[in-house]
Design brief:
Largest sheet: 4 strands, antiparallel
Distance between the termini: 43 Å
Order of helices and strands: EEEEEE
Number of helices: 0
Radius of gyration: 28 Å
Helix content: under 10%
Shape: elongated
């Protein structure tokens, strides 16, 4: 089973909220691309990928998304993938006997599951 993740995508500025049990955060930023003109080709967008410890980030982080340049340029975006700690498994405690009562004895079992001769 893979580790759980929280995925947040931003196509405009906003606020990233750190989810509970956050451990690592993959941040993928793509800048706005430049539009083409009659005399110049459009520029490719720049991108940056970084992984940081969730403990190094606050509970909220402002995300700024830039607009593309010249008419026809594409705006940037951000993809933030937060790796979460696995949810702890709950261990169920055995039932508690009501006061003044005893549970019946539990038989002892051998390695292959057969009762041990007593």
């Amino acid at each position: 089973m893979s580790d759980p993740v929280n995925v947040q995508f931003f196509h405009q500025s906003g606020v990233w909220h750190k989810p509970p049990r956050a451990v690592l955060v993959d941040i993928i930023l793509i800048g706005g691309g430049g539009g083409a003109s009659d005399t110049a080709d459009g520029e490719n967008a720049q991108y940056k990928v970084e992984t940081v410890n969730a403990s190094d980030l606050g509970s909220e982080v402002k995300v700024e998304i830039g607009a593309g340049g010249r008419p026809g340029g594409t705006s940037g975006c951000a993809l933030i993938i937060t790796h979460l700690a696995a949810t702890p498994r709950h261990v169920h405690a055995p039932p508690v006997a009501a006061s003044g009562t005893d549970f019946p004895p539990v038989p002892q079992y051998g390695i292959i599951g057969l009762p041990v001769a007593g």
